[in-house]
Amino acid sequence: MENYWSGAVELPRTECSEEWVRVSDTVSLRVLTWTPFDEALRQLEPVVMIPGWGSLFEGWAPLVAEWATRRRVLYIETREKPSARFNSKKILTKDFTIERFSKDITEVLSHYQLKNEFHLFSSSLGSTLLIDSLQRQEIDAKSSLFVAPNVHFKLPLWARITIKLPLPILALKLMRSITLRAIEKKVKEEGQRIRYRRAVREQELVRWRASARSLIAYSLPKDLSNITVPCGILAAQSDKLHAMDAARSITARIPNAVMIEVPSNQYAHEADVLVEVEAFYATL
After folding, report:
1. Which CATH architecture has domain 14-282?
2. Which is the most buried residue in 121, 158, 171, 210, by most CB within 10 A?
């Protein structure tokens, strides 16, 4: 079986490095960095990418393969993913609060000595934790683009009940199968369906449950007026897993944020979205 969670990913016209950055006494996160060959492009502000819950890099490869030839890209895999290294044997729900996710990102930024001269690009969980961090003014950046951010992590009643039960691994595998069927039924975009199917199959189930237990209790604060970083929210009407109304609500609550409607969620994972990204950067 292919290993999605370790190994440098070589892309054309770039140099790639892979590093596990220690973010606490017990956890280290995998960070992939691509640097363009062109020396002049290395001087541009880098992009820091934080993907969604359980996301595989493979789903972002079409976008990163082009973007990394234009400027340096740092891709941070959050702690719920199988790539994260835990020294503690017991995985606890408290290990996966939004505040802990956010603290991880600040630790990575500090490790790479990134102050505020960089751009943020994130999706789903990555977007939600960054919005929370920006509201608390724990992170500063040149700009931030959010793909399909969540106001909260809403799950069906059966899923909320099941997640809270102390079920054995076999039952978690059954729950994963049910989740896959639900995705197949709800998601209409073929590219998005393929990405989610593969990601769900590749999760470390104990972390998957622990992070879900924590995240289902979270909602973004109503007041997002402390955010001063220029923000754009990318969303697609066809995306059935991330409500367009949520994107509009977040846009309205962040001062001077702009809504950027894209054709599909899959489009936001491909190089074509750089047209919208560069147009946004041109307004800064």
Report:
1. 3-Layer(aba) Sandwich (3.40)
2. 121
